[in-house]
Amino acid sequence: MKRSFLIATVILLAGFSLSGLDLDLSVRGETGITSVLWHTIRFGTPGTGNDLFDYRSQGGQEVLFPFFRFSTELTVSGRHEVELVYQPLTFETKSRIPENETITIDGVAFEGSGSGGAGDGRPLDLVYGFDFWRGTYRYRFVDTDRGNISFGGGLQLRNARISFETTDGELRVVSQDLGPVPVLSLAGRREIGVDGFFLEGSLEGFYAPIRYLNLRDVDVIGWLYDAAFRAGFATGETSEAFIGLRALGGGADGTGRAPDVWTVTQTEPRYTWNNLNLLALTIGARLR
Measuring CA to CA, how many Å separate 59 from each of 53, 63, 123, 233? Predict the structure, then answer.
């Protein structure tokens, strides 16, 4: 009873404290197509001779993929911006290992010939998932009738799921990772020409060359970037439509801790090199 009363009191006080503020809430959705510009990966126990795998030339990522993005933004008193983003980002592709060739991933040798092979090589199913959620706070240090510029930082939660598997199920490599990533954020908007038309952009990213800066206690170099440019117009008093171009990517280089779960292939500390770079063309809408 005391705990319930305390929670109700906190909620009530929060309501009173926000009642005098100028709050502006908006939601935004985008959809479109994305192209993998370049994407390479290598992981496994250090010193075991694991190959560098090119997802475009070897893994079926040379085609276009659907792109989706969802976000909500709360602006408080015209100066403080709080944005929440959900970005699904999973590629499921099919490839093959050419006859008489071998690819070593995480210490597992995938040979082009085998029980699941045929005259043109061995079929291979791949999943590369890097969905993420991000929360960001920015402060508007420039705010005029025609536009604004804001800067701040936040935290991104990565949800990495990577697998290589022969279609017969004989050989499989699984790598998974869940963890936080810090980000810096810069955003701006400019009203142009005729009322209702606008340009806006954002740049978010981070580079962590040492432990602790990457929010981990191992020396894994990590980086990410998320840059977008949008042009749009008002479709009503509380709605907008836009077209956007987005460059998105990131990666890691180093040896992490030994995994303590059964789902991954190796239980030894795994060396990882991962470099993903995307370009997306989208259309979307914002509702206020």
Answer: 8, 11, 11, 39
Strand partners, 103: 110
Cα(46)–Cα(40) distance, integer angstroms: 17
| 8 within some domain | no
Task: For residues 65 and 76, give the distance between their C-alpha atoms in angstroms, rounded to a whole number.
Answer: 36
170-202 pLDDT, tens digit each: 888 888 888 888 999 999 999 997 778 999 999
Q: What is the pTM of this model?
A: 0.85
- Domain of 116, CATH number, reads 2.40.128.100
**DSSP state, residue 169:** S
Buried residues in 155-189 as b, exposed as e (16+ CB within 10 A): ebebbbbbbbbbeeeebebbbebeeebebebebbb
Element spanning 12, H or E: helix 2-19
pLDDT value of residue 120: 75
Residue 9 lies in a domain: no
CA distance 260 to 265: 11
Q: pLDDT tens, 67-79?
A: 999 999 999 998 9
pLDDT digits (tens, 9 = 90+) for 224-246: 999 999 999 999 999 999 999 99
**Structural domain count, the chain:** 1
Please write down the HEC assignment for all residues of 217-279: CCCCEEEEEEEEEEEEEEEECCEEEEEEEEEEEEEEEEECCCCCCCCCCCCCCCEEEEEEEEE
Coil vs helix vs strand at 142:
strand
Distance from C-alpha of 244 to C-alpha of 287, rounded to nearest angstrom? 16
